[in-house]
Amino acid sequence: MARCQQGTMESLCQGLLDLDDDKFGAMCSAFGYLQEWPDLTAMCGASLAAPGGVAPPVTGDGNESSSCSGSGGGGFRKRRPDAYLDAKGDGNDTSKRPKGKQQQPCGLGEIAAPGKGKQEKPKGGTKKKAEAASTAAGEKTDYIHVRARRGQATDSHSLAERVRRERISERMRYLQELVPGCSKVTGKAGMLDEIINYVQSLQKQVEFLSMKIAVSNPVVSFDIVEDLFGRQLKQACSPGALPAMALPGGQLEPSCLQMSPMQQVHPSAAACSNGFGLDMVVSNMYQPAGASCPVSAATPVTAAAGPSIEPCLNVNGAAAAWDIGSQNLFSGFDAQFQSVESDCLLDNLKMEM
Amino acid sequence: MSSRRSRASVSEEEINELISRLQTLLPNARRRGGSQASTTKLLKETCSYIKSLHREVDDLSDRLSDLMSTMDHNSPGAEIIRSLLR
Prior knowledge:
The complex is a heterodimer. Chain A is mainly alpha-helical. Chain A is built from 17 helices and no strands. In chain A, helix 10 packs across helix 11 and helix 10 (188-216) runs parallel beside helix 13. The longest helix of chain A is centred in the N-terminal third of the chain and has 34 residues, at 97-130. Chain A is rod-shaped and about 100 Å long. The termini of chain A are far apart. By secondary structure, chain B is mainly α. Chain B has a domain at 36-85. Helices cover 86% and strands 0% of the residues of chain B. Chain B has four helices and no strands. Chain B has helices at 2-25, 27-32, 39-74, 78-85. Chain B is elongated, with a radius of gyration of 22 Å. The interface between A and B is large, with 45 and 39 residues.
């Protein structure tokens, strides 16, 4: 089947090469026109396909031949049966199709290549419309029309790979729009690097902002603090992260980065509690919570704060600075708790639980 | 040709490494636990993650500015905090 197809293609190509330039131009413009008006294309295709009495997939080929006959002349009328044959061949075995298709531009040479490219597009479109229930393989063959033109490999693996790469580069382009400064970088590696940096900086920014809010209004945004600690707890305790913690260097980096906002904040947290005129209890952070809060509220506070902080400190071993930072922070909380009615606080905490 | 291929494979390795680094940054990937997802899916997730981070940052900045404005009235130490937080 493929052989026969090839033969007809060769003859067809010969016909096309005989074209003089203005005819070719007219043909190209006709293709462009047909591409712009799909309705017209469908119409022409339908009218031309009718005498042949062949099923919908042919409409694509039908309009192809219509455009040829409109511009070319006598020699091109031959094309119609050829096209039908081609369509039938495609219907029978789709795997052979790319090879048959690929022969065309090679035979046509340089002149015919752009025209050919235009030809294939509307054809693929109408074909897709006609075959509503096309399989995945069918969709792939639609890709081939455009993709496998220049003597590329046409086996299913390379095609799938090409489709995959296409999708990836599409995503990369999209990411390029999202990440500022990414459009200047060339190459995938540079772009990925830039994306990673950007994501990290955004993560840092989010954590830093949450800490700022937590420090400036502890009661309202207590959930943020807990969320933050909870996230770090999750990260610290997840089985994947534990070996990473044991390793020094690169893999430790994300967790360090996540902590840095906390460390940046802690002097201001200290200053904050100073500003409120608090006496800070440095010895043990859980004692003041019990001592200064109403008894009813004391247990929820420790329950909420205890499990989330302790493991972080243990795992990270970033001991001293952290300890002081969180102590100051929480003594700040205590001051606020005292000023707020206890039932409101309890509601807050219940929501947390 | 062979030199080109080797260069391509080097950059391929580099890209793979970068991809896995990116994967560790994503919250979903961490949950999945090391299984290598497809690059397409990963990049898609990165897109949505960056968008969600943008939203979060905007939301948090709004909340912070709200807090700052309300704090002016009810606390005396507000300027100190603001100057320190800036």
